[in-house]
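User: Sequence in, structure out. Go.
Assistant: Echoing your sequence, followed by the structure tokens.
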Amino acid sequence: MAIKLLKPTTNGRREASVQDFSDITKTSPEKSLTVTLKRHSGRNNTGRITVRHQGGGVKRLYRLVDFKQQMFDVPGEVIAIEYDPNRGPRIALVQYENGKKAYVIAAESMGVGMKIMSSKQKIEPTVGNRMPLAHIPVGMFVHNIELGPGRGAQLVRGAGNGAQLQVLEGPYAQLKLPSGQVRLIPKDCMATVGVVGNGDKKLVRLGKAGRMRKLGVRPTVRGKVMNPVDHPHGGGEGRNPIGFKGGPKTPWGKKALGVKTRNKKKQSSALIISPRKKKGKK
């Protein structure tokens, strides 16, 4: 996918860019693989806002993407590449030899007519094929990775992402994730060969607030321009600093930056060899 720069006919379009949808081969989704998506605007069952800055947006149909791909040893053919408004990467419509259809995350260089297959046995490690980590050659990039056998893909599903298989030793495979974290995953877990497509999505510049509203993102107000009753940073005369020695706070008085949120007692912590890298550091 490429990025298209818009002509600066207005202030909102001067720095804006859009995706080039030349890779899309089918515009309307497969009706049998879609469901209606109810919007909650960040509210819980009592109507209280528990997630801020959500609301509005264009109505969407949810595409039922197959993250398990448990139709083993049945070849499938990619018959269309489609746009999915609910995620960054493209999705591929696959027609299997038994007549069934399914959506899968489209990998880089995946196109119409490509043959893919999912198997628990060792098959050819070509882009789009899915198999246990134990059968994938060391050094290859994979995506749609399971954390436990049969649980479906939970890791590396974002546009342009790929995890590198580094070592196969004992019952585990060692993977370097896009965040820089190196962790062990059971060798029986399934993964798809290749890197997730549509990596240029991160280069798109929305350009104006109206495009954010269409995505369902409401405005974010700085805490320091609020009143003290609404935010710990609020109050004061003129442009005052936030005035905290302990660093920035959330609206509920908790530390906002540099706080580790992972539970130290989590069982899977023993499988992490090195932590994720901080933003800005390589």
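User: And one key feature?
Assistant: The chain has two domains: 3-201, 226-274.
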